[in-house]
Amino acid sequence: MRSIYNDFVSPEEKGEIGEDIIYRDLARIKGRKAFLPNCYIPKHNGGTTEIDLIFLHESGVYVIESKNYSGWIFGDEEQEYWTQCLQSVGGIAAKKQFYNPLWQNEIHIYALMELLQDDTFPYYSYIVFGDNCELKNIRLTSGNHHVTYYEYLLQDISGNAQQMGRCLSNEKMDELYSLLVKFTDASAEQKARHIEEVRAKHYPIIQPDGTWTCPQCGGRLVPRVARQGSGAGKTFWGCSNYPKCHFIYNE
Ligand SMILES: [Zn+2]
């Protein structure tokens, strides 16, 4: 339990350090602006989605996802999971997978658009990585996302703002701010509930009749045997809706 919990908490904590750097830099951008950190935006199918930072600027709404990771980062727009490669002391690379941050930010923006019901201004997706990681061959295909390092964020957003010009009136900015501020600074209780929701998605749901169902799609869980990889031959639980649903559970 503990290790799964850690997987979700420590990047957030690390993220906070990165967010301080982001505020400091974005405060230098010319024009009217406001910060809305840690927004918990309701999703239409229930639950919430957490946006690290909404940067309201006269040039539009910047939805910023901060990843203060180290190591080498591999991935592209179509891959569900990206890989973080850490060089260990013994020279053996440790690999970790994390959900495609572009898809993650698309979920954020979608929830925000649903909430605001307003497309009279642009929304921008920014994924910002820590300076102590190296992005390797990250391929962006749709042109909908900006992927950069903390170091270049100021430059990147300034350039975008200059190119787009003014897209939000003072009145509109005030309106958006007062609406969104209600979703920021979530209480510890709300934060805990959000972490619990995320964690719950990784455990089977035990039905009253003792069968297990998938926490992500509601499908039946069935025992399967791993064919390849280091776990070849081992049994795990897979979703009966595979390949539509990729949920797996190792006891
Ligand atoms: Zn499933």
TrEMBL record:
Matches recorded under PROSITE patterns: NERD (PS50965)
A cellular component term, taken from the record's GO annotations: chromosome
UniProt cross-references to InterPro entries, sorted A to Z: NERD, Topo_IA_Znf
SUPFAM superfamilies per UniProt: Zinc beta-ribbon
Pfam annotation, one family: NERD
GO biological process: DNA topological change
GO MF, one example: DNA topoisomerase activity
Domain NERD stretches: 14-135
Name of the protein in its database record: NERD domain-containing protein
Natural source organism: Faecalibacterium taiwanense
